[in-house]
Amino acid sequence: xxxxxxxxxxxxxxxxxVAPTAGAAVMxxxxxxxxxxxxxxxxxxxxxxxxxxxxxxLPPLPVLDLPADRLRVRRLSxxxxxxxxxxxxxxxxxxxxxxxxxxxxxxxKHYQRRNTQLCVLAVETGAGKLIGLAPWYIEWAPLDGxxxxxxxSGEVCTDYVTLLAGPGREDEVAGEICEWLCGAGRKVWDxxxxxxxxxxxxxxxxxxxxxxxxxxxxxxxxxxxxxSVELPPxxxxxxxxxxxxxxxxxxxxxxxxxxxxxxxxxxxxxxxxFDRRFxxxxxxxxxxxxxxxxxxxxxxxxxxxxxRDISRQFFALGxxxxxxxxxxxxPIAASYSLVGGETVYYYQTGLDPDAKKxxxxxxxxxxxxxxxxxxxxxxxxFLRGDESYKISWDAQPRPTTETRIVAxxxxxxxxxxxxxxxxxxxxxxxxxxRFRPKLAKQT
Length: 443
Description:
Blueprint lengths: L1 H4 L16 H29 L20 E6 L2 H6 L1 H6 L9 H11 L4 E3 L1 E6 L4 E5 L1 E6 L3 E6 L13 E2 L4 H13 L8 E8 L3 H12 L4 E5 L3 E5 L4 H7 L2 H15 L4 E5 L3 H21 L9 H16 L3 E8 L2 E11 L2 E9 L8 H15 L4 E6 L3 H5 L3 E3 L1 E7 L3 H22 L12
Parallel strand pairs: 6-8, 14-15
Antiparallel strand pairs: 1-3, 2-5, 3-4, 4-7, 5-6, 8-17, 9-17, 10-15, 10-16, 11-12, 12-13, 13-14
Helix pairs in contact: 2-14, 5-11, 6-7, 10-11
């Protein structure tokens, strides 16, 4: 990837021009930069990709005999490196499934591509104890350059990702990672895109503070909310806590369908049944989405392979609840939830579009909430997305944030300027703004 990294905006082969008016300048600079980067990518980047992508290698960091209380940063750049710290990684994950080695290493197994490389940064004591970790990878693209992102990014929708750190050590870990990226690792990145952390996440706040202190440009925008509801100890207490109209609707559904056995909610407990019921989930999900004119999540081969893999792992660990709902012996709904600590993370569903008259999603949700309470869970997390049904269950929003940190390099700064210009141009076009150059006054 060394050839790829050399394609930056300081390259003399890339030409720029500036238009006479502000609006036209944005459009012309955008056009010229795109053209220049495309030419450079053609001349250098594509040859590297065709040759098997010569990945950028940092010079090995010296192994020092450090005092036990001194910290160092070590870059983990292979799947074997990740496997070696799996237990310590999971110890730092705070029982949140999306932060675990299992989820993120499995994501890398299925989603790594020729333009990506691992950049997991382990913060260790001089004695070798892992006290923090940045679960990242780098993705290269002609216009964006080398961008650091969280493992689990993209269509998988990995929520609650963050820098992992021992209790009370968030600032310390963030400071070490910032120092490494500004020192030994300064040549490997043009920007850091952090999508999905909670807005109140202390580790991300510490990281942005350290980069801001070093003069880096930082862009922060609100992300999509996650939603969760607190669960009481008993189902009766839960019913008493919801609005009276909703409580009446739940009780009507119980009498009409669930309590008389016409509709039955099942939870998979037999490993031999797991694969068959997971295929039921996929089938119901895809049928429902196609009926709405959408491709469905499982139309993606990578997505499907990843979830078949990780679901088996979590099921074996007792950290996954796969439920299906039957009406007269026929599956009409299925759901796939992860379990961490005392929280259920309601991840994916499938509904029979031919059974919409009986509201299969509604019946499945009643079964899922009741099962979560009966298993002793204290929180039901609907995860990311501002769908109205979440609010109807009295779920409360958990705001997330999207943060972009720009490298203090010529390449990083100019690529960021291009990104901002493209965003403004799209905004203006969306609003229907037209640029009219001023005519010179005639004398």
